Amino acid sequence: MLDIAIVETSKSRRRLPNQRWQIYPQNIEFAQKLAVENNVSPIVSQLLINRGIETPEAAQTFLNPESLILPSPLEEFPDLATSVELLQEAIASEEKIAICGDYDADGMTSTALLLRSLRALGAKVNYAIPSRMHDGYGINKRIVEEFYSEGVRLILTVDNGISAVEPIARARELGLKVIVTDHHDIPQKLPPANAILNPKLIAESSPYRGVAGVGVAYILAVSLAQQLGETKGLIQPMLALFTLGTIADLAPLIGVNRRWVKRGLQLLPKSNLPGIQALIQIAGVQARGEGQGDKGIRGQGEEGSNLKSKIRLEKFATEEPAQSWGFPPCATGVGNPPYNFSQNPKSLKPEDIGFRLGPRINAIGRIGDPQTVIELLTTDDMGIALERAMQCESVNQQRQQMCEQIEQEAIAYVETEFITSLQEDRVLVVVQPNWHHGVIGIVASRLVERYGVPVFIGTYEDEEHIRGSARGIPEFNVFEALEACHDLLGKFGGHKAAGGFSLPAPNLSALRSRLIEFANECLEPQHLKPLLKIDTQVNFNEINHQLYQQLNALHPCGIDNPDPAFWTPNVQVIEQQIVGKGHIKLTLAQTIDHQQYQIKAIAWRWRDYFPLPSRVDVAYKLRENHFNGNTSIEMELIGVRLPTQSHLFVAAPSKPITTTFEYKQRHYTCGIYRQGSLPELRIKNPEGKVLAMQPGHTIGLLGNSRDDAQKVDVCQPQYDSIIQAALKALSVLSPES
Fold this sequence. Notes:
By secondary structure, the protein is α/β, with parallel strands linked by helices. Helices cover about 35% and strands about 20% of the residues. Helix 6 crosses helix 14 and helix 15 crosses helix 17. The chain starts with 19 loop residues before the first strand and ends in a 6-residue tail after the last helix.
């Protein structure tokens, strides 16, 4: 009988999420330094390091985005002065202006933002948004010629146009002036517009580099309003629309986006736009207090200039007087950090937009009429706003039902046709008739989450044509894959993570074969698991309201500034039950120094994994739960795996336990040995080099002998993956073996 207890043997090795965990390397010394200098927890300072913070000064700017020194947009965007002049001339001469937007949340909020601001500034302006089903993306010749026939003299594109060479060339032939505002990647040939505003054309180091289409529209509208001396009453409504569009479009929440979105989230609950209030009311969003980092330091260095034009922007008016923003004066006492963690006025969070408000807008663009959203966001009549918000709600419910039905049909099709070849194919190509093109991209994302492979999903427009969407995984470039199949496709486009395409139906078989070939060239078997990036290890006794308040200093979280993800090893599942539509509600416990700490948790849509094993490593995000006047900190589980490190075994073995396993087509031996009084996992490769690690340690040894071994961080993916493979091989050994 071995004096080692291997937890969760064959009886309990049930299905668990198919994930690969990537834990950031821990920089304990620098994290401690940042913690002291910024008066935050070492946990928070490690999160800052994980987000690319390399100096204490950069940490202070991140925690207090109001201290960011912003250059004048005129200095950053070469055509901004020209754009402002063109609009100013059109307003003065009462020329008709037409906006061509896009049918996603970014395009519709951009269109509404410019409509509201231009009308308020006296412009004669109208708009058009192409039909997703009939026109496809972006401005086209038909729209240009309709604008011309209506007497339009200036076209303004928003969230599109950077690739529209032919339509814009046609507009210029007709004598129209064109301003392109867009944020998509720059093509080899630019359109012949009078002015082009695109953050991809400015320096990568610019704080404006990451703005979405609505961010470009915001910069243009604010610059024009300031030039005309008419900023009063305009900035807050525009900032609300900027915030809504930026988050809904998944723009990176860094640089100026972080600064302006943080302000906007505080403004949204008390926005004077009827459409925003109606949307918040219909969606049931509740504003919450949070420990924000901006206690009133206003931006410095936002002076304008008269570069390249006679325009003189005294200050880029991203805000009205400080008190109207609800920011009290900042404490300036010696030693005070430029932020604190007290309760500020109630604010929304990015997830309120990303999961509640944004989908109701996007649903219209997917299966409804974009005019509904434009009217919602431009009306000053609360009655009309509520009617349009109700329409958004109804269409969103239809969209949800469509997604659910198509997802279930797609899963059934995959499980029948492709499940046995999935690991070999390394890509899913799923095409069926009678699916709605407007929602199949959402289904593609859900299939990626479920199967861990790139997904190309399509539906028949008619017997001869297929239209589809694609979603990728980190190691797979969707746009490059589409380019590799260009001769089989009609139109296609996209970027690394997502794309759209069309093709003649007879080419489907060849497309599937080509994509399988492409996937096998760039993907290894270990890539075919959803990647879970985890910031740092936290023990249950460290989770409290003080830590949660400090985490709020990192908000707003989103793209390029993800919600903090933590993990805790070897926790005990005390209670678990299915609630709602397939969610698992749990009570988890961790014992530290003979004291047990418990915490509640929720695992969304995890019915397939119920019941969870009694002992697991958990990955999670922290959430506040407000119930019956009480506030508690709870977990939202994002990952779970069988216990690792010390938690596969509870004592050092009297004699080594060894086995062999295969990893990346190479044979290894591994075993649990006694090192002093502690157990130690050792893994030997075919060349005789050994990786050794002890339970609970993040640093291991790698070398041919213990004397010449080098220290390595075993949380790094290349070590963690092989450790997981070794532990899996050892876990098949029962205590009686």
